[in-house]
Amino acid sequence: MANGSKLAAKVAIVTGGAQGIGEATARRLAEDGAHVVIADVLDEAGQAVATSLGASAAFTHLDVTDARQWEECIAFTTRTFGSPNVLVSNAGVMLTGSFEDASVDDFRRAFEVNTLGAFLGIRAVLDPMRHNGGGSVVIVSSVGGLIGIEGMSAYCTSKAGSTMIARCAAIEFGEDGIRVNSIHPGRIETAMSDAGASDLPAVGSYAGPPLGRVGEPAEVAALVSFLASDDSSYITGVQHVIDGGRQAGQKYPRPASP
Hints:
Radius of gyration: 18 Å
Distance between the termini: 39 Å
Number of helices: 7
Mean pLDDT: 92
Oligomer: single chain
């Protein structure tokens, strides 16, 4: 259940906040008391989310692969709500296709958004977070950042990169009071996930995880809110899997009931 005060005095930037997990996260952080800047390349959708949240949110255009736009995002956030002490690095792209058919451009695009975007975001918030005496960075990776998935070589490779960025940053900036964690959703009910899965060979035989269902964006947002809050003050450098239990191991299929 949302707590309207646990993120009071927090100023958060949520990249890719116009839809999917990013939108759910922006809404949850605002419900929990934070001021939220929604940063996305989808201007109309992002502004609509910010407007729906009222005075607690604002929108700014951000291409996470552009260092100059990151500078502008930090300046906008500081002018609007104050210096940021939470970053949710959620913006991402999902590229599918066989390893053999994947192009250099596919790998480059996935790396630029999913990996370089996370790197640039952390670099951008370092000084503001140090000024605030610390902060929390949450990198939205994927279970594909921990294991390989057929038909998703570019995506998995780029997400593995963002996972390692989170671990390295946690080591280097812990003394500044800056915590960096990554989260690793499994199949979540979003437009991007649905579109990506439709191109995979096994989509017709997708077996649910032990919990027996696809996850919801709000469930991922709840984990992000916890990691953004002071309730997780001694947690950093950790890969938090949220996949309904799929990584626990193999579940054998059951015959259909007559």
